[in-house]
Amino acid sequence: MNWTEITAEVAAKDIDTAGSIAQMTVPYGIYIEDYSHLEQEVLEIANIDMIDEELLKQDRTKGKVHIYISPEDNPAEAIAFLRERLKAEGIAYKLSSGDCDVEACLENWKKYFIPMKIGEKLLIRPVWIDDYEAEGRIVMNLDPGVAFGSGTHETTRLCLQALERYIKPHSTMLDVGCGSGILSVAGLLLGADSAVGIDIDELAVKASVENARLNAVDDRYTAVRGNLADKIDGTFDVITANIVADAIIMLSGDIERCMNENTVYIMSGIIDTREDDVLAALPPSLCVIDRTEEKGWLCIAAKKRTV
After folding, report:
1. Which domains are assigned to the chain?
2. What are the helix (H) ranges across the chain?
3. Vertex 167: Cα angle to 145 and 279 (nearest 5)
4. Rounded Cα distance, 79 and 123, in Å
5. What is the pTM of this model?
6. What is the pLDDT of residues 203-249, one digit of tens each?
């Protein structure tokens, strides 16, 4: 089985915090290189003062956290988590990952991506699995490819659960940063009349169209490549933005024009340390109506204030 190695290089003073963040990324397989107190630690542990020449050449000002991702986890999601957490902590970093054949990694990952129950109504079914029990749930057929959004990440699950609460029959939906299209397709399966997905990534747009087709909702789904300000007109009953805190903050200036008086705006991909920043950026006319949290990730829903 192929594993992926991700390396985060940070200043030595930040290595402990970076290590804690790495432990949140995966519950296994991390290795920390920290040579900042090499002589002292060797003397204390081994009671000797002779150290290998190669170790003495190591940069004492930097530390490295090595994270090993097994095939059942998605390396892209782990990298996204690391970037957001390290940035939220104000840690300067350099990320790199080991060589990996993308197709081979995806094939390995597929072996462990099994049907998942989410919320009270949905079952996410990978298209390559035929043996499953729906148990009365709405089945979403999904092939995420390399686009973000498989349902395995906390941010996506929180959004799907929120959609169960806020999608009503005949709703119209806008999905900002649609990724694989998982949220748009879920909204349509849950009863929305139409959904528009927008993403700057061409591969994401293509993946979302394909997933709409796999679920026979492509006649009600529109995919757009670009950004909100340039490409989207009109208002929607439900808006989702499962991206990152900084992008949600940037959206705050435009999102209100896409909202009618009863629109529910669902935001996710928000790390807990950025909650106040996101709330401070919301237009004064909006108020928070819902907040859920899982493993340090937040999902916040807002509406226009009633007069």
Report:
1. 4-105 (3.30.70.120), 113-304 (3.40.50.150)
2. 15-25, 38-46, 53-56, 75-88, 102-110, 154-166, 182-189, 202-214, 228-231, 245-251, 275-281
3. 85
4. 26
5. 0.70
6. 788 889 999 999 999 999 999 998 876 778 899 999 999 887 888 99
